[in-house]
Amino acid sequence: MVTLVVATTVDPASIGPASALLAMPGWYPGPPVQGMSSFVNKGARLLKHENSIVREDHLDKRWEEATGEVVDEVIFLSKHTAVSNRPALTVHPIGVPHLREDEVPPAGGKPGWAAPPNPRIGPWLRLLKAIAESHNLTPEFEVTLEATHHGPEINSPTMFVEIGSAEEYWKRQDAAQAIALLVWEGLGLGGGAAVGDWSRNDAPNKILLGIGGGHYAPRHMDIALKGDVWVGHLLSGYSLPMEDPGQSKQTNVEAIGGTWREAIKVALETTKVAFPGGEVMAHLDHKSFKSWQRNAIIEFLAEQSIQIGKPKDFC
């Protein structure tokens, strides 16, 4: 079982951290995979390609077919873009579970799909924040979660680690070094204990499934930054399309259209896959919903036997 770290040469925020990581001890050339070069260090495999980071699908299975090694998890190195251009270091799960079959995903993936969230997301968010602070990247760079979004399509537990949000920051060597150190320490490549290994978890087994809020999930992140919180999928408001049936004061839940149910189901199922034996608990950003939306989601979660937790319930 190996960890696949993926970088692309066409993205400075991807190849920069990859190059910094490969400059650390212990790496040696690995097998070529369909024209892509690879590098090996203990249980880590770094794979480089020359295409869009969100367009190369099923790299886990392609690696397994080429090498015979089973991929346990995938970590993508990428740039982050935002209208604000604000410098940021981000982590997030991937998927577009809210899209209908006839919709074309704007940035990879498949409609109605989400990859299992990498269990390291919560622990690595906390580690990334500590690294950024110790390397004087904060407060210039914001360290943040992002909601579940975009591709590529893949079936292994996956996370994106990104540098944002404009070219001047994508090329920053200090930011690249921080991301490289996150992977180095997080995977235990320097000899220390790996961070966020669910299979070795002996802490409370509650996993946060975030529902509602904006793209940067501030209320969910407030919880994730505390203690030993594990983080699953994070569905922002735009990933929960809900069509008002025109009966907002006396809502018939069955009359509420949109793909919000499907999005929650997929996020729930894949989060359970990523955390075998764990208890998935929803955390709602209550203020981001209208009352009829909130009531419908609460009723639907009850039908799925999913408990809704308060911040103290996850710590």
Automatic annotation (TrEMBL):
GO biological process: D-amino acid catabolic process
InterPro entries per UniProt: Deacylase_DtdA_archaea, DtdA
Record key words, sorted: Hydrolase, Metal-binding, Zinc
Domain of life: Eukaryota
Gene3D superfamilies: AF0625-like (3.40.630.50)
GO molecular function, one term: metal ion binding
UniProt keyword ATP-binding present: no
Tagged with keyword Metal-binding: yes
Transmembrane segments: none
Name of the featured protein: D-aminoacyl-tRNA deacylase
Organism the protein comes from: Actinidia chinensis var. chinensis
